[in-house]
Amino acid sequence: MFTGIITDKGQVASLEKSEDGMTVRIKSGFQADTIETGCSICCSGCCLTVTDFGEADAGCWFEVDISNESLALTTLGQWEIGSPVNLERAVTLSTELGGHMVTGHVDGLATIVAQAGDGDSVRFDLEAPVDLAGFIAKKGSVTLDGTSLTVNGVDARQFSINLIPHTLGVTTWGKKQVGDAVNLEVDLIARYVARLVEYNAD
Predict the structure, then answer these.
(1) Which of 33, 83, 94, 166 is the most exposed place for a label (fewest CB within 10 A)?
(2) Tell me: the pLDDT tens digits for 140-155?
C-alpha cells in the first residue's frame, strides 16, 4: 500500500528485455540499507518487487522484473535508459498518510489532452478510458504516474488536475506534454462502491 506522495525521482540505469518481460535497474536517492530483496516500491504508479539492490553514488540502485502484462497495460514499456521514474516506498504503521490509499495496481492509461499555466501552477486536462471515467469525481482523488492528485473538474471522459511548482519539480510531471500517456489508478473506495452497486443490482 502507498499514499501517492512521491519521495524520490529515480532514473532508469539499464534495462533488458526478454520473452518473459523486462528487467530494469533504477538509480535512486534511497539509502541501500533501507532496501531489501522482496520489498515493494511504487515506480511511476506501478507496485514492483525489488529483486536485487546495491549502493550507488549517494544512494542506491535496485532491480525489478516487469511482466509482459504490466508492459502491455502501463507506460513502463516506453522506458529507456535515462527515463525519470516517480518513486515511493510502501507505507508503514508510522507513515503519514498525506495523499490517499494507493495500491500501485494500474487500472489503465489516461492521456494528456491540454496543458496551461494557472498562476504558479500548471493545469492538465486528461482523458480517461471509457470503462474508468465513471470512477473519477470532482474533488475526489486519482493516482497518475504514482502521484496522488485532486480532481478539479470532470466533463464526460475528461478531467482536470492542477500541479503546484513543488510537485512539478520533485516528480516527472515537470516534463509532461500534451499527448503523453500516464498510468491511471482510480480511487480504491470508488472502485469498491461501484462493485457493491453492481452486485446489489444483480
Answers:
(1) 94
(2) 999 999 999 999 999 9
DSSP output for 104-132: ----EEEEEEEEEEETTEEEEEEE--TTT
> Which percentage of the chain shows pLDDT scores above 90?
88
Domain ranges in the chain?
8-89, 108-201
Task: From 136, 135, 112, 132, select the one nearest 124 (Cα to Cα).
Answer: 112
The Cα–Cα gap between 136 and 119 comes to: 25
Q: Show the cell assigned to 10.
A: 529515480
Output phi, psi for 191, to 5 deg.
Answer: -65, -45
Global pTM value? 0.94
Residue holding cell 510531471? 173
Q: Which CATH class is domain 108-201?
A: mainly beta
- Summarised one tens digit per residue, pLDDT across range 1-50 is 999 999 999 999 999 999 999 999 999 999 999 999 999 999 999 999 99
| Residue 27 burial (CB count, 10 A) | 18
CATH architecture of 8-89: Beta Barrel (2.40)
Q: What is the rounded (10 degree) CA torsion for 176, 178, 180, 186?
A: 90
Torsion angles phi and psi, residue 106, rounded to 5: -70, 130
Q: Are 126 and 26 in contact (CB under 8 A)?
A: no
